[in-house]
Specification:
Blueprint lengths: L3 E4 L2 E4 L4 E7 L8 E7 L6 E6 L5 E3 L7 E6 L4 E6 L8 E9 L2 E4 L3 E6 L1
Parallel strand pairs: 2-11
Antiparallel strand pairs: 1-3, 3-8, 4-5, 4-9, 5-6, 7-8, 9-10, 9-11
Amino acid sequence: QVQLVESGGGLVQAGGSLRLSCAASGSDFGIYVMGWYRQAPGKQRELVATITPGGSTNYVDSVKGRFTISRDNAKNTVYLQMDSLKPEDTAVYYCNARRVLYNFWGQGTQVTVSS
């Protein structure tokens, strides 16, 4: 069982930065693929970035070069560093942990980017 708690969202102007954190409970954090998803009003939830237990990362094209996902297994935490933010990045950002037959979600944290 994994419980995820996101933090770090807020209001920022275009071009600014935010760092999201996701703290996970449990002792098996290191075996999960961790990810960040986002959902804008009226839109479907989309994948933003993932990081495997081995550290391999993937990003949606729209955030490549601007966002960085990382993990600290000693702290059971995954991060999303968001730079050069754009108004279209405005969404609720959700932390996700998954492995075979398991899929856990955090409560979400609001990111609002003003123009």
